[in-house]
Amino acid sequence: MDDLAAAENPTSTTTPTAETTMETTADTTMETTVETTTDVKAEKTAETCVVIGGNGFIGKCLVLRLLQLGNWIVRVADSSSSIDPHLSHHRASYLSVDLRDYSQLRRAVDGSSVVFFVETTDASTFDLYESYKSIVQGAKNVVNACRDCKVRRLVYNSSADIVFDGSHHLVNVNESMPYPWQFVDKLTELKAQAESLVLFANDYDGLLTCVIRPSNVFGPSDTHLVKFMLSQANSVWAKFILGDGNNLSDFTYVENVAHAHICAAEAIVSQTDAVAGKAFFITNREPWNYWELVQRLYEGLGYQRPSIRIPSKLVSFMLPLVRWARYKLGSETELCGILMPAQFVIESSVFTRFVNCSAARKHINYSPVVPMEEGIALTVKSFSHLAKGSITSRESQVNDFSKAEEILGYGKVADVLLWRDEMESFSYFLVTCGFFYWFFLSGRTFISSTAGLLLLATLFLIVNNILPVNIFQKFPLPCFEISEGTVRNMLDNVASIWSEGVQVAQALAQGEDWSLFLKAAIPLYMLKMIVSHSVVMLVGAVLIFAFTSFFTYEQYEEEVDNFIWIVVIVAKSSLSLLLRSLPPSITSFFSDEDESDYNLAQPPPE
User: Fold this and answer.
1) Which residues are catalytic?
2) What is the DSSP string of 107-157?
3) Which residues, listed in sequence order, are joined to residue 137 by a DSSP beta bridge?
4) 586: domain range?
5) What percent of the chain is modeled with pLDDT above 90?
6) What's the pTM?
7) The domain that contains 136 carries what CATH number?
8) Nearest Cα to Cα of residue 185 among 344, 79, 23
9) Which of 32-36, 261-265, 337-341 has the lowest mean pLDDT?
10) Calpha distance 65→47 (Å, rounded)
11) Does one domain contain both 315 and 421?
12) pLDDT of 435-453, one tens digit each?
């Protein structure tokens, strides 16, 4: 009724009076004035800080948290060419900075009171020389720039891995744990050098320094730990659990790492003696098992949980081999991108590694703001676009045809060998086995077997002609007529193959191309060995292979491709190691051959 009355006489209820309008305008103006005054006061009292590496995984979270607090003016200094749109804010500015360029760093930190150094290096693309310049030399440049610009505080993001030697468990260790004699890898050693430089610079020219050591950082937009876990979710490796799965490790949600940096920056002034020049372990204070975290992520995104356990002794045997391969190969091969995360997984399965962060709680007033359960839930939610069955996860499966079907040519042969119609494929298999028995296992010669088969075909045609009903009319056989165009294409292909064969024979006769000679001689010798050993066994193996391999490959296509890819990379890396150990004269010979092959592979100039 009230609504109806209002509709009939809208002016009586909807038109505001002058007094109401004035009151509303006054209230709005007052609120806007208060908010503006508050922002102006906040900006006047706000401190200017610089986040070096602010466009990275940890840096983004730190910048967002500083902006949320409202009492910081943030400069985002990063080596990337563009800033993340989420970091756009009226109290944030962006500077492109190269850590190797001291002048750029000096301009970035000039006028600031706090510098957060959270620049990270991607271990999957690790290069020793470039990493040394960005981590160690970069730390020197940051320290010198802070001292020259009279910056008061510097907080450096290190890693808890710098106290791990790769041979002993870490059980509730604290910051008194010294650096090991041998680090687990070169990247960790460089981080330890940079950390030492920052701590050594404390109290020089009024600069107070502090180091944060987070352990296994994870969270939304994680480009390292979680990305590696999910990259294996669809592979065969995701089915395995290395070891007994009882070793504990520390993990730290990324927002807790950002919170720890801010706590350290504030405490370094109020508790200078206890914080300045010190390093602090930062964790979620909830040691977890690595495989439990993997299972939670997989389960949350709809993937199958790992279930097949590999014995701990075998895993312990694998670790030295992986480390040896990483040491020998350095950072020049594609295999290092696989060995780095593999080493981390094996170490997490073999060694217990959790630390005590009570010093951070006591001296910088740190405690996790996001518990482990909530952190995992937020991480799973942020990677929902990679969940099983999502559009993104199906991008690699857009094609209607499998690779096995593409290899077989999409036709009748593909339908038979891939068992599209089980009854039809089984019939073809029986017929093929019958021919195999007739020609190879019956004890007759090939000529006599062919003559006997022709005799049976002749008798069949005679009987079919005598019978009143034509069998071909009841059971129509496929037409074997070939079109003229198909015949011409077949003849063109045969002529092309013949011409290529003649060219190869001429090149072999000249005796100048050793690479071509080996490519021709080795397969021919292997074929000769196989044929001389047993033709029957070879034909039988081909028959079984044809009716089983393509079908199996279609079922486990991704797993087989990953396995072949790893085998190829291992073979290339092994060849690289072998060539390094050969005399220079032999190595140069192979290099020349490779270069000639490369030149032959290039298209001729127009």
Assistant:
1) 191
2) HHHTT-SEEEE-----GGG--HHHHHIIIIIHHHHHHHHHHHTT--EEEEE
3) none
4) 403-454+505-601
5) 30
6) 0.63
7) 3.40.50.720
8) 344
9) 32-36
10) 14
11) no
12) 888 877 777 777 888 888 8
